[in-house]
Design a protein that fits this description.
mainly alpha; Ferritin; two-stranded antiparallel ribbon
Length: 234
């Protein structure tokens, strides 16, 4: 969540607390604007959680991908390449087909290379087992290692989607929250027109704190009414 978004979110929470502490005389109520703000705060809370979780999980999957890439290369592709070089020198094209891929390549390309390795050595499976000492299920193990890496890549994409979706949701809810506060402002200022203490609390609650104003050279910040703060462009 961006700094300005966080500050707006905190202002919405303060406004929500103000409404709870300052109910309108019966039968009046804050009505639809109050319900809208309550929904906005709930959604922002959920989006903030998803945004944080998506970022953390994406980093975890990125690290897992690097580990699984190393496993696929060291435990499966490299032994195949060495055995092919030693035992299949006369097989047409096998040396090129089982040449180790570059170290720094994408997961997608490495998976493609692993698939190409499998297709190249499949006709010589018995040679790898009987003469090369590979396990009888070495191709199945190669497939499993490749699938583990593929799932880690998919997990990373899913977590990125969660993070991006949550970020978009936060932007939308900030706008909805601003609309709710604008409507509530007219209710509060009318209902408590003769109560300066309550109005002072309201003005304090709805202000966004810490938003940098035009006087950036001094490092001072301004407090702006919530309804006047525009969201930062993505």
């Amino acid at each position: 969540m961006q700094a300005e978004q966080k500050q707006s979110f905190e202002a919405y929470q303060r406004v929500q607390a103000f409404l709870a502490d300052n109910p309108l005389p019966t039968p009046d109520s804050y009505g639809a604007p109050g319900e809208l703000l309550r929904d906005v705060v709930a959604r922002l809370t959920a989006h903030a959680t998803d945004q944080s979780a998506g970022g953390r999980l994406r980093k975890a999957e990125t690290k897992r991908q690097r580990i699984l890439q190393g496993v696929l290369r060291a435990r499966h592709l490299r032994p195949i390449a060495r055995i092919a070089s030693a035992l299949l020198q006369d097989a047409p094209g096998i040396e090129r087909a089982t040449r180790m891929p570059p170290t720094h390549i994408t997961t997608t390309r490495l998976l493609a290379e692993a698939g190409a390795f499998r297709e190249a050595v499949l006709p010589y499976e018995e040679v790898f087992v009987q003469k090369g000492g590979r396990p009888a299920d070495f191709l199945a193990r190669l497939d499993a290692a490749a699938e583990d890496l593929r799932q880690a890549q998919l997990g990373q994409a899913q977590n990125l989607a969660m993070q991006v979706g949550a970020s978009a949701g936060i932007k939308d809810e900030i706008v909805r929250g601003r609309q709710a506060v604008e409507m509530l402002d007219s209710i509060v200022t009318t209902s408590f027109a003769d109560n300066g203490e309550v109005l002072a609390k309201w003005r304090s609650a709805r202000r966004v704190r810490g938003v940098t104003g035009g006087n950036t050279s001094t490092g001072k910040s301004e407090r702006q009414p919530l309804a006047l703060v525009e969201p930062r462009a993505a």
